[in-house]
Amino acid sequence: MTHVDSTPVRRILVTGATGTVGKAMVNALRRRDLSVTALTRDHAVADLPADVEVVTGDLTKPASVIAAAREADAVFLTWPLLDTGAAEATVAGLAKTVRRIVYLSSADVVIPEPGPGVDVHRRLEKLIAASGVEWTFLRPHAFAANALRWAEQIRSGDEVRGPDGAATTAPIDERDIAEVAVRSLLAPGHHERCYLLTGPELLDSRDQLRIIADAVTRPLKWIELSHEDAAARFGDTGWPAAIIEAVLAAQASLVERPGPLTDTVESITGTAARPFRDWAAEHRSAFTAEATMRAARVHEYGGAEVIRIDTVPRPEPGDGEVSIKVAGAGFNPSDIGFRSGFLHDILPVTLPITLGSEVAGTIVSIGPDVDRWRVGDTVFGRIDGGGGQAEYAVAAQDEVVAAPTTIALADASVIPVAGLTAAQAVAVAGVDRGHRVLVNGAGGGVGGFVVQLATAAGAHVVATASSRSASTVRRQGASRIVDYRTTSVSDYISGADALINLVALDPEEATALGGLVRPGGRIVSITGPIPVPADSSIVSTQVLAVNDTDRLAELVALVDNGLLMVDVSQRRRLRDLAQLHRDSEAGLLRGKVVIVP
Predict the structure, then answer these.
(1) Is residue 148 within a helix (H) or strand (E), and if so which, with residue range?
(2) Looking at 4-133, which runs of residues are DSSP E strands?
(3) SS3 of residue 329 by DSSP
(4) Cα(22)–Cα(75) distance, rounded to whole angstroms?
(5) 134-140 and 193-197 strand pairing
(6) Residue 215 to residues 198, 205, 212, 225, 273: CA-CA distances in angstroms?
């Protein structure tokens, strides 16, 4: 038997910190003034309190979880995956670092008709019990939060369609699970205990719906679905057919054999478990409010002060469109042009507009005639109609591609505009192995991609950049870096095969740079055109990037193969967008910036 350490627990690692129970855990621990480390796959979108240490990690990468636990005394561990391949290494590593693990398991390990994840929980329990740490297993049955799956139907009408309305459970409030977990982490007497957790009353699905109807003060009707119709509805989730069948079978079993009912919450916390009626009342807005979101909008042209973070109806996808829950949106100088009205004559829009043409996120719904994507797919792209700087965005299905898998989803949002512009500029410049290429303005978002793509093509790259950007540009592959503020570019290169210009130039500067290109060479500019003499053999082209998802998919392959680095210099909150515009106009930004909702 494991020796029980009576030393007080001071720091706790919470995995799944942005999930339903994880958030409740973080809040419960903060109320006790304990130090909390929150593990999340995407630091940028965690949106946790400022006094919580947020670290990036992934349960499929044991080293990241173990590193996050380095200063912790105990871990609240979740495993919301069907794959346990990384579990053994994760548990073994945690056992060397912490002394106590509270694992969020499931009642499925002990009930007669378990759900599809039962083997996962049995595997994790076995590994933890054999690891030598102090352990407690929490086995909740049905979450009260499962009722949120009906929210969209309730918001849009008075009927809820589902299978097995007589299926009976005792739904438990996530806060009660968290309270039991906190006591198991902090108090003695919980080692080697398995707690079956439920709410205080047995309710079937129709009972729960009647309680929600009371909360929203209007009648709601349950419409029974056949097994086949329910399976078809689940098909839109993208789940494998075997998982769908297992879920429906477990649900059906609760008609004849109701779920368990325990008083474990009260016996451990001293307070009765919260009734479902209280949960429904506190989540009333989820069932009554029109689906809304926050969006960065401009109602009139002007300075950064005209940017408003409005609460607006969530857009619904039309024919051939997908709705995306935004993980990140890229910031571009063109955003300032749209905000200020500078681009109105070139790209006229009708105010108000939602800013942002780059987005990365997860598809949450699809419109008619969408055949390329399913709900749950992670995608990114350039949406030429704008609207990316919001919590949700709608895009045509052919405007997005599958997101890279080797970088944070939010970070993928900075690739489309800069990456496509760079790729098309390098292509037009005809960059090839052995070419000498001058990249003017390499420290910007487009510049980083140009330097890498030209280097990958085998070119010798001379790049202009400030001292602030020099180390990054050098890491991206530039052979020589020239600080344009202190040094003449002509001291380092002449007779270049190609000039790729990425910054605005006055006529004198343009002429000087053009003179560094050899006869027969090429000049490409993404700002204004650079003139050459009428009798010159130099070809000068201005490139305005077009949306090209085939080329964007090629960039994804480069990223995932480690051949293209995505340089994210900052991650800023949507609420701070006005200040981001001011910083950009003051020249304080480097590289690419991700905006997270």
Answers:
(1) none
(2) 11-14, 35-40, 53-56, 74-77, 100-104
(3) strand
(4) 12
(5) parallel
(6) 22, 15, 5, 24, 19
Token pair for 150: 């009906």
What pLDDT is attached to residue 43? 64
Taken as a whole, the chain contains a residue count of 597
- Type of residue at 21: V
Q: Which two tokens stand for residue 59?
A: 């349960």
| 46-51: long-range contacts, CB 8 A cutoff, minimum separation 24 | 46/17, 46/18, 47/18, 47/596, 48/17, 48/18, 48/23
> How does pLDDT run across 191-250, given as a tens digit for each residue?
999 999 999 999 999 999 999 999 999 999 999 999 888 888 776 556 778 888 888 888
pTM: 0.60
Identify whether the C-beta of residue 275 lies closer than 8 Å to the C-beta of residue 201.
yes
Closest to 402 in 3D by CA, of 547, 563, 555, 545: 555
Q: Report pLDDT digits (tens) over 342-369.
A: 988 888 889 999 999 999 999 988 998 9
The C-alpha R_g of the chain, in whole angstroms, comes to 28
Dist CA 111 CA 124 (whole Å): 17
Q: How far apart are CA 14 and CA 25, in angstroms?
A: 7
| β-pair type (436-440, 460-464) | parallel
d(CA 107, CA 114): 8
**CB burial of residue 330 (10 Å; 0-12, 13-18, 19+):** buried
What are 131-190's pLDDT values in tens digits?
999 999 999 999 999 999 999 899 878 999 999 999 999 999 999 999 999 999 999 999
Residue 208 identity: Q
Q: Is residue 488 classed as helix, strand or coil in its secondary structure?
A: coil
Total H helices, total E strands in the chain: 19, 27
Of the candidates 555, 455, 551, the one whose C-alpha atom is nearest the C-alpha of residue 500 is: 455
Give the alpha-carbon dihedral of 89, 95, 101, 106, to 10 degrees. 30
Residues forming beta bridges with residue 402, ordered by sequence position: 379
For 163-224, strand residue ranges (E) read 168-169, 193-197, 203-204, 221-224
Q: Quote the CA–CA distance of 399 and 377 in Å, as a whole number.
A: 14
